[in-house]
Each structure stands twice: as C-alpha cells, then as structure tokens.
Design a protein that fits this description.
InterPro entries: Flavodoxin/NO_synth (IPR008254), Flavoprotein-like_sf (IPR029039). With about 170 residues, the chain is α/β, with parallel strands linked by helices. Helices cover about 35% and strands about 25% of the residues. α3 links the parallel β3 and β4. The protein starts with a strand and ends with a strand. The structure holds flavin mononucleotide. Flavin mononucleotide (FMN) binds next to α1, α2 and β4.
C-alpha cells in the first residue's frame, strides 16, 4: 500500500514540487489535466464560483492506496475547477489519510487548502498535513523546512518503486 500524489499544475511549478515529493516518499503520481483550456478570466470566475471542469482520465480510485496527496496552484484564492472535479470523482477514499499542498504567487490565504480539507474531510478521509509554497521559492528550489516535515508524514520505507500514471 502506498501514497498517490494527484497533481494539477498549469505552468509546471506545482508539478515540480510533486515530482520532488514523489522521489522523496516513493509515491505514485497522477496528473490531473483538463480536456480544454479556458481563458484567464474564465479560470478565475470558475474558481471563485467553485465550478468543476471536465478532466482527462487519471487515477481517481484509491483502492490500491492508503494515502493521498492532492496538490494544485491557487487560483483567485481558491482551487482550480479541475481539482474540484477530481475531488468529486474520487473513489474508495473513506478512512484513508490525506495531505494537501498548494503553490501560489504570493497570496498567504489558506482558502484553497481549507476548501480541499473540508471536501475530503466530508468524504470521510483523515487529514495528515498541509504545505504552501510560493512560486518564486519553487523556481529557486527553496523549499524550506516545511518540505521534509510534510514529506515525512507520507514516507513509506517499504515502497521504493514509484510510477507515473497517465491515461
Ligand atoms: C488563473 C490564475 C489565477 C491565479 N490566482 C492567484 C491568486 O489568487 N493568488 C496567488 O497568490 N497566486 C495566484 N496565481 C498564481 C499561481 O497560483 C502560482 O503562480 C502557482 O505557483 C502556479 O502553479 P503552476 O505552475 O503549478 O500552475 C494565479 C495564477 C493563475 C493562472
């Protein structure tokens, strides 16, 4: 049993952290991708209104996993619509543990992490930890003290073989 990292990333920063985390903890990684791109303003509006977006097939069934890390950029202080859809599509998650992490341009608001925590709590998952990183720090590979602390909550010494799950 191992950890699944589910990552939505539009311009690569969140994915960069997700891949580093994947290496560190020996997790599988699935990328959440939308079927269609939307204009910048529509991305903002969809996030504010907590809408969902059609996503490409990815790993949503946690049958073979005991932990989930869900990660994404902050959009308009909130989660992107693709992530809202992913949380809706999740299966076999009850009583499993989860963590969330976000990257953001500078906004210190935790609204997006709260949104994910509340959604997954309501679906019966158990919260393990959260992390927030700033885009610039990700670019400069300054992950800070929080990174090993967060990773440590998901480390499984037995699972060394990680894989990338695509469609
Ligand atoms: C549509 C859109 C909305 C954004 N809204 C915010 C915001 O409200 N607060 C913030 O700090 N950064 C905001 N950002 C910046 C991203 O959260 C940040 O650059 C993030 O690290 C990008 O991650 P990615 O490269 O994985 O997509 C926004 C970016 C986009 C494209």
């Amino acid at each position: 049993m191992k950890t699944l990292i589910a990552c939505y990333s539009y311009s690569g920063h969140t994915l960069k952290v997700a891949k580093k985390l994947q290496k560190e903890i020996g997790a599988d990684l699935t990328e959440i991708k939308t079927e269609k791109d939307r204009w910048y303003l529509l991305k903002i509006l969809d996030s504010i209104r907590e809408k969902k977006a059609t996503i490409k097939p990815c790993q949503t069934d946690l049958m073979n996993y005991d932990k989930l890390i869900l990660c994404c950029p902050v959009w308009a202080g909130k989660t992107p619509a693709a992530v809202n859809q992913y949380m809706f599509d999740l299966k076999n998650i009850k009583d499993k543990e989860f963590g969330v992490f976000i990257t953001s341009g500078g906004n210190r608001s935790q609204k997006a992490t709260i949104q994910m925590r509340e959604n997954l709590d309501l679906q019966g998952m158990k919260f393990l930890g959260q992390m927030r990183l700033i885009t610039k720090d990700v670019e400069n590979e300054k992950y800070g003290e929080i990174f090993p602390l967060f990773a440590g909550k998901f480390k499984d010494p037995k699972s060394e073989n990680s894989k990338n799950i695509t469609e």
